[in-house]
C-alpha cells in the first residue's frame, strides 16, 4: 500500500501510518489500537 513512502518522508513521522487487516479481524484490530491509545479512523 505505501511502497517507498519512507523514502519520501524520511524519518520525520509526519505521514499517517496505515494498517491492513482482514475484514473478520477488523473489530479486534480496532480494539487493540484503542487499548494502546492509537487513534483509529472508522
From TrEMBL:
Parts forming coiled coils: none
Top-level lineage group: Bacteria
Residues covered by the DUF2007 domain: 2-35
InterPro entries: DUF2007, N-reg_PII-like_a/b
SUPFAM superfamilies: GlnB-like (SSF54913)
One Pfam assignment: DUF2007
Descriptive protein name: DUF2007 domain-containing protein
Native species: Litoreibacter arenae DSM 19593
